[in-house]
Amino acid sequence: MNPGGLAAVGTPRQPSKRRVPVSQPGMADPHQLFDDTSSAQSRGYGAQRVPGGLGYPAASASPQGAFLADPVSNMAMAYGSSLAAQGKELVDKNIDRFIPVTKLKYYFAVDTMYVGKKLGLLVFPYLHQDWEVQYQQDTPVAPRFDVNAPDLYIPAMAFITYVLVAGLALGTQDRFSPDLLGLQASSALAWLTVEVLAILLSLYLITVNTDLSTIDLVAFLGYKYVGMIGGVLMGLLFGKIGYYLVLGWCCVSIFVFMIRTLRLKILAEAAAEGIPVRGARNQLRMYLTMAVAAAQPLLMYWLTFHLVLRSPAAQAAPQQGGHCSRNNKP
Q1: Membrane spanning segments where (predicted)?
Q2: Could you report the per-residue pLDDT of 279-316, keeping only the tens digit for each?
Q3: Which of 64, 89, 141, 242 is an S-S bond match for 145, by CB 3.0 to 4.6 Å?
């Protein structure tokens, strides 16, 4: 007897006698039948029936079924996601206008091997021969592939370490306070800002066409914190002799490093422009390079000597305070 005829007459279905199509071994693609929900939707069923589930409805797992079930909410979600994507793109563009995030990623593309080589170059720059920055298709390679490339990772970490070491030095001398530590950090940042602005103004006044950017200046000027950390630590461990020896070595090293690095950025452009070596403009470039390099040892001493070398009056102040407190005891 034809099952379709019985359904047309109105005979009620018997769930126990329903035929399960999956169990038929001769079917070519049994999964296609249950993945296609168009037949169930055309019959007006609210949900797809699970075979062998005694006719109970089950929620559709396909995206098409979910969209057809509630098209308005899905269209609202799609529209909201598109608005969020447009807003994110707009925010990224505005951020890049003021903060060059894409460029900053280049200066933090470092690895452990690069950091070790760079620290060795900052302390022992005398044996290094090739100071040229490598380029690939008119673009400098990432710092992790070239030890001569400037980076911001070492200056940033060195500045944070310098502030921590300054706090340690103040604590060993019973002078630590959050205000004094903040003053130490802000003064170091202020001197760095003054250096960058002075160099940019000097480059503008002597009309130097160079690829030396502001971020490059911050990177090169921030390398002096490495020597400052070494000088303060040796001063805490070995006193004045250790401080002067280590800081003096680091001052000479940073002077040589800055001379050999900046001359390729400033003087190389003059050679490319055909300016004579003994010309007035070229001499100004040489003086600027020497001045920037000579300012690094001076600032290294200025920002560290009060952390290690204390005046006799400052040393006697805690002792006098202790004597007064003992004398005032009842």
Answers
A1: 152-171, 183-205, 217-237, 243-263, 284-303
A2: 667 788 889 999 999 999 999 999 999 999 775 554 55
A3: 141
Confidence (pTM): 0.67
Sign of torsion, CA 47 49 53 54?
A: positive
Q: How far apart are CA 226 and CA 118, in angstroms?
A: 11
Q: What does the alpha-carbon distance between residue 146 and residue 149 come to, in Å, rounded to a whole number?
A: 6
As given in the structure block, the two tokens for residue 173 are 């001398």
Q: What is d(CA 132, CA 259) in angstroms, rounded to the nearest whole number?
A: 13
Nearest to 237 by CA among 168, 299, 178: 168
The confidence band for 98, taking pLDDT boundaries of 50, 70 and 90, is low
SS3 57: strand
- Structure tokens given for 322: 């202790």
> What is 28-46 written as a DSSP string?
S-HHHHHH--HHHHHTT-S
Task: Kindly tell me if the per-residue pLDDT of 176 is higher than 50.
Answer: yes
| Identity of residue 63 | P
Phi/psi class of residue 55: alpha, beta or left (left: φ > 0; alpha: ψ in -120 to 50)? left
- In this structure, what DSSP letter does residue 48 have? E
